[in-house]
Amino acid sequence: MEFEKVFLEDGGFYWTWRDVDFMPYAWLEEKDLTKLPLPFYVQDIHPDCPVGFECEGEESKTNEILLPDSFEELKLDNDLRKDLRRIEKKNSSTEIVPNEKNALEKAGKWFLDLWNEEPVEFKRRLLVWKGVSTLSAYSGEKLLGVHISIPAKNGLDYLGCWWDRSSKSLSIPTFLLMKDVERAISMNLSFYDLGVGDEPYKKQWGVVERQTKYYAAMKPPLAKKLGLKRFVDIA
């Protein structure tokens, strides 16, 4: 595990996990705590992690789709179920290529155009995401988008979709998400995790919500500045 400093406007700082923004969840073991640089703060810790304090607020909840034996048995929002039928018809000629070589590099321009991530950070992201699963959507030879997920224990964690917004009418992100959930069901996996957040589209999938955790080890003034009620006091 690598760490980086986060600097605050007043000149203060804390350490955090270097790759926390690239992965769906953080994870700490008790044995890790004595090795952490101080002061330390990390969010988005998985609910099952033995370490951490429970977060508050809707934006800190998980969105886990518990997978039944078939896609039809999913507890989807009725509007989403209708939309999926419509989207599948629109993409009747769309070809899906699983785990295409260099899929992230091919679709990276759309991500960079949208988020303007620094080149060094994008390079790091690709390094951390080595081993992810992808679904690439094509219309003929034209790449429409790349859906990205990462294997978890008996499930899949959603990482994102990099797609061509000139093909917005095809709803490629939703189409590829549907196909990846279908793939997870066919693999007899237990869950498909859409990640932390309160985005309305996630709730349409009939998700199970659980509060994530955070871990903080710092002096009281910094904890107060960060709005943290619970923390390990290192004063």
Structural overview:
It is a single chain. With 235 residues, this protein is of the alpha+beta class. It folds into two domains: 3-56 and 211-233, no CATH class; 64-203, Aminopeptidase, CATH 3.40.630.30. It is 26% helix and 27% strand. The chain has helices spanning 78-90, 103-115, 119-128, 172-186, 200-203, 220-226, and strands at 3-7, 13-17, 40-45, 53-54, 64-66, 95-98, 133-139, 142-152, 155-163, 191-193, 213-218, 232-233. A six-stranded mixed beta sheet has the order 5-10-9-8-7-6. Strands 3, 4, 11 and 12 form a four-stranded mixed beta sheet that branches. Strand 7 and strand 8 (142-152) form a beta hairpin. The radius of gyration is 20 Å and the shape is globular.
